[in-house]
Amino acid sequence: MSPSASARCESSPSESTPSAPARSASARSLTRRLPVAAVVGGLTLAPFVLGPYAVGTLSRILVFALLALSVNLLTGLTGLPTLGQSAYFGVGAYTAAIVATRLTDLGILQLLIAAGVSALVAVPTGWLAVRARGVVFLMLTLAIGEIVYSAAVNWKPLTNGTDGMSGIPPVVPLPGMPALELDGLVYFYVLAVFLLLFAAVSRLGSTPFALALRGIRDNEPRMRAIGYPTRRYALTVYCGAGALAGAAGALWVSVQRFVSPGDAGFEIAALALLAVVIGGSGSMWGACAGAALVWLTRDYLGNLEAVAGRGPLLLGLLFVIAVYTLPRGLAGVRIPLKPTRKRTA
Asked: Residues 20-66: pLDDT tens digits?
């Protein structure tokens, strides 16, 4: 055998074998994808193993998780803590209810119109709100939420006042499909929309636009100094968060088939902000996990016989415990997958 052939034979195994960094990267990618696949698989199989009440609760949790995601876009990604997302959630819910009762029962149209109207409402209100920061911004968003709540109570010809809007027909997801009357079918519709919107928001997190928003959160004066129009960026994400909250409101109507002024009230806004804080500000999946924890604490643990009527107390305790034990929220918890090895000399 010639020396050149021998060299080729000796070098071929090293060329075909992936390097250690490549194997490590592929292992990390697989480690990240396995939990996602497990969660999606569990959510898909849930209606086959759970009862109607539990399935309905899961549908509400998914809707509330979308609202928490809209709060996280402002609070976690941009550094603008808000108590006003329930306003756009309520606008989207009432818009979807009006479209469903007076125009069409197509879910895709309800979602698009509700998101569009909520975004339009967010333009003038956001233009005012993004001029402030910190506590002032928080109070402005709270005032916006109270204005929308008052409008829902007093605009009776459109919203039916405190009686709410009922008699909403079952949603039809797409043209040619039947109306969804069973809880399990409605759940699959909500799950499909949730996964699409969650993927879109997650994709946004890796764009240059999201990097600019993080820069505004961390050091806005420096971002302005290098030429970024920070108010324009903040208004854009504010309107996008409003559209996402409006889409969540449309899904809420598909699940409940009822909407009332309470859906645009302070309690919903406070719970959404609490979900983001507990889940981990800035983390998309953390906001969803926090939403599930908050909702289950309020509607499941709070209704147990041993603690009946003490749901708000449990939420308060949960918040205090999370602040002191999980400063970075649920997203900050790290579970070691392999035991650490001590180096020996």
From this structure: 555 555 555 555 677 778 888 888 898 898 888 889 999 999 999 99
Q: Which two tokens stand for residue 77?
A: 């990604």
Indicate the SS3 state at residue 266.
helix
3-state secondary structure of 51: coil
Question: 10 Å Cβ neighbour count for 184?
Answer: 16
Cβ atoms 75, 214 nearer than 8 A: no
CA 194 to chain centre: 9
**Please, what sign has the CA dihedral across residues 158, 160, 164, 165?**
negative
Taking CA atoms, 315 is separated from 56, 149, 212, 290, in Å, by 21, 23, 34, 12
Residue 136 sits at the vertex; the CA angle it makes with 130 and 141, to the nearest 5 degrees, is 60
**CA 28 – CA 23 distance, rounded (Å):** 9
What DSSP element (H or E) covers 216? helix 208-225
Retrieve residue 36's tokens. 């996602």
Q: What is the pLDDT of residue 58?
A: 93
* Structure-token match 């147990």, residue found: 304
pLDDT in tens, 104-151: 989 999 999 999 999 999 999 999 999 998 899 999 999 999 999 999
Confidence of residue 15 (pLDDT cuts 50, 70, 90): very low
* DSSP per-residue codes, 56-82: HHHHHHHHHHHHHHHHHIIIIIS----
Burial of 262 (0-12, 13-18, 19+ CB in 10 A): middle
- Cβ atoms of 115 and 244 within 8 Å: the answer is yes
Q: Yes or no: say if 145 and 84 are a contact pair by the CB < 8 Å rule.
A: yes
DSSP 257: S
Q: Are 116 and 93 in contact (CB under 8 A)?
A: no
